[in-house]
Design a protein that fits this description.
The complex is a heterodimer of chains A (195) and B (435).
Chain A (H helix, E strand, L loop, with lengths): L28 H11 L9 H12 L4 H11 L3 H8 L13 E6 L2 H4 L3 H12 L5 E6 L11 E3 L2 E3 L7 H9 L23
Chain B lengths: L17 H6 L4 H9 L2 H11 L11 H6 L9 E6 L8 H8 L1 H15 L3 E6 L4 H16 L15 E6 L9 H8 L23 E5 H13 L1 H5 L9 E8 L5 E6 L4 H8 L9 E5 L8 E2 L9 H6 L8 E6 L4 H15 L5 H19 L4 H14 L7 H15 L1 H16 L15
Parallel strand pairs in B: 1-2, 1-4, 2-3, 5-9
Antiparallel strand pairs in B: 5-6, 7-8, 7-9
Helix pairs in contact in B: 2-6, 2-9, 3-6, 5-6, 6-9, 13-14, 13-16, 14-15, 14-16, 15-16
The chains are: A alpha+beta (195), B alpha/beta (435).
């Protein structure tokens, strides 16, 4: 849960941050190159805000003030403009999080098939292990493998509570996550399509 | 050979590569359109096909293309691959398994619309599919299907795969445009419509993945032939995502107009043994629910509209008789509360208070009068916001109150009775949780 917005009082005496000065804002060279490559793709460079923030998040682990400053510096916008974006989108983290994201879909189709129990089981099993960023997520677009989870972008399902220890173990040891349950390997349900 | 247009031999190994796609006749429609047809010819075929948008609104695609101004003004084509309507997962399977079909359809559509810049806005969660699209785009560019003077024609097109970052509202076309411009995904006031003022204030055509993926088939078989499939006003085939309480959840390609029962029972296997269909969403979680008595309704745009619901994105969510309707309502309402961008008051407040009132029922604090208030809140959301996100909650919740009033009333009564005898572990809610 983000603690930004109206949950914390703003410091009204402070001037709003201006566009960061390149001379005093070191940006990792690779990150700068990636952001600039994104900016070059669009008629208006500001369109690169989402891919740029995603790139900075990969480097810093989350959209930290430092990460936001670096993107703002390269893009030539104020940090506030990027803060407004980072707080809007679910996949941009505005607090430090665990390295491996485990998004458990708990929307209608998945919850009809036990997603809430699955989410609770994963959360409990992960405990306070800082490796994981376990989140209940809105419909991930994989109701055919409900209940399911997206592990660092890899969709796995249908999952049962019994799969949870293996799932976390695979992540911890850097193995391919539940290879038999990966969506990418699943044939189309419409048998006539392949007839 | 299967008789599928979109799902034809969909699991053929390597179909995501250019070599396999071309070996089965891929990009022939593009050749035909660009080398042997004028943009007007292509537009005529699209109009003759009767193809209606597959993203949710069901607007005639040919007509949408024709709304764009002519002349040398820079025009944009944006493919909506945000697919965030709960229950919908058809575009995901298309992009993952046959990305070149989408690219081919998109290039043909850009030719008809005279668009020179295009973007595929794909939701951030679909990172695997975005990687597949990027690889396919690289191949298509190398082969000369994307870029300057495609296949030696006058038509040029640039294409960028743009990844979102997790927001349902970015599936709404104007929210998507703001997001693509690098802003929060807040919907815009319409008019002006995107065809006149869309991306970067320029004329913009926005189409769903499935809509664009259908274009190559229309060019191949002709619009008139395509229009023979389906019903008179819902032509062609449609991908239907069936999920929830069915035995074989998944995507199925059907001819529009077949009985809904055939999709839910024959294709998807129906609910588990011993269970019956309590209600079903015919077009994603924002569609008003239908009941087990409505299973013989033909699955097409107009029949479902006549029944008081909608075909939407083609996502059927089945709920069997083991689930209380309150649980379904709470899931739906909480989702839209979370996803409301907060710009319009009826949506921001209406989704929030609907959740509060539903939770009140669950806590045993509600009276049957609350159902009246809740129903009137829904009525006050519909049509009163910039976009239809609020409606997307108000329509299904309103339909649940209307169709399952008896169950909700008895739920209120039974929860009230159990709430009178507090169990040791059930903590009273903090004051202020409900005003």
């Amino acid at each position: 849960m983000s603690t930004r917005g109206w949950d914390v009082p703003a410091d009204l005496d402070k001037d709003p941050a201006t566009i960061p000065d390149p001379a005093t804002t070191p940006v990792p060279e690779e990150l700068r190159r990636e952001i600039e490559a994104h900016m070059a793709l669009y008629p208006d460079t500001r369109s690169a805000a989402l891919p740029a923030l995603a790139a900075a998040q990969r480097v810093h682990g989350w959209c930290s003030p430092e990460a936001i400053d670096q993107v703002a510096c390269v893009m030539g916008v104020t940090p506030a403009e990027l803060d407004a974006i980072a707080t809007f989108y679910d996949m941009l983290e505005t607090e430090p999080v665990g390295e491996h994201s485990v998004y458990v879909c708990t929307n209608i189709s998945c919850s009809l098939r036990g997603a809430d129990e699955l989410h609770a089981a994963i959360r409990d099993a992960a405990g306070d292990d800082q490796t994981f960023n376990v989140r209940a997520f809105e419909c991930l677009g994989a109701c055919d493998i409900a209940p399911m989870a997206s592990v660092d972008g890899v969709y796995v399902g249908p999952l049962s509570v019994a799969d949870v220890p293996q799932l976390l173990d695979d992540i911890r040891s850097g193995r391919d996550v539940l290879p038999d349950k990966q969506l990418a390997k699943r044939p189309c349900a419409d048998v006539e399509a392949n007839a | 050979m299967s008789d599928k247009l979109l799902f034809d031999r969909i699991d053929e190994p390597g179909l995501n590569t250019l070599a396999v796609y071309e070996a089965r006749g891929g990009y022939e429609s593009l050749r035909k359109a660009l080398l042997r047809m004028t943009p007007e010819d292509v537009l005529k075929e699209l109009e003759a096909s009767g193809l209606r948008g597959r993203g949710g609104a069901g607007f005639a695609m040919g007509k949408k293309v024709s709304f764009l101004p002519h002349g040398s003004i820079e025009k944009y084509l944006v493919c909506n691959a945000d697919e965030s309507e709960p229950g919908t997962f058809k575009d995901r399977e298309l992009m993952q398994k046959t990305p070149h079909l989408l690219l081919e359809g998109l290039i043909v559509a850009s030719y008809a619309a005279g668009a020179s810049r295009s973007f595929i806005y794909i939701r951030g969660e679909y990172s695997q599919q975005a990687d597949i699209l990027d690889a396919a785009l690289h191949e298509a560019r190398e082969a000369g299907y994307v870029g300057e003077n495609i296949l030696g024609s006058e038509h040029s097109l640039s294409l960028v795969v743009h990844r979102g970052a997790g927001a349902y509202i970015c599936g709404e076309e104007t929210g998507l445009l703001d997001s693509l411009e690098g802003k929060r995904g807040n919907p815009r006031l319409k008019p002006p419509f995107p065809a006149n003022q869309g991306l970067y204030q320029g004329p913009t055509l926005i189409n769903n993945v499935e809509t664009l993926s259908t274009v190559p088939a229309i060019i191949r078989m002709s619009g008139a032939e395509y229009a023979k499939l389906g019903t008179e006003t819902s032509t062609g085939t449609k991908l239907v995502s069936v999920s929830g309480h069915v035995q074989r959840p998944g995507n199925y390609e059907i001819e529009l107009g077949i009985p809904s029962r055939e999709i839910i029972y024959d294709l998807a296997g129906g609910p588990p043994a011993g269970r019956t269909v309590k209600c079903w969403f015919p077009g994603g979680s924002s569609a008003p629910v239908l009941t087990g008595d409505d299973l013989d309704i033909p699955y097409d745009f107009d029949s479902l509209a006549k029944a008081g619901s909608m075909l939407g994105s083609g996502a059927i969510i089945v709920v069997d008789d083991s689930t209380p309707i309150l649980d379904v309502a709470l899931k739906v309402a909480r989702f839209y509360r979370h996803e409301s961008c907060g710009k319009c008051t009826p949506c921001r407040e209406g989704t929030n208070w609907t959740v509060h009132m539903l939770e009140r029922i669950d806590r045993g604090e509600a009276t049957p009068m609350d159902l009246e208030i809740m129903a009137s809140v829904q009525d006050h959301i519909i049509g009163h916001c910039l976009c239809v996100l609020g409606d997307a909650m108000a329509m299904p919740i309103g339909s649940m109150i209307a169709k399952f009033r008896d169950e909700l009333e008895s739920h209120i009564e039974s929860r009230r009775l159990t709430a009178l005898v507090p169990e040791p572990e059930s903590q009273p809610q903090p004051a202020g949780a409900v005003a």
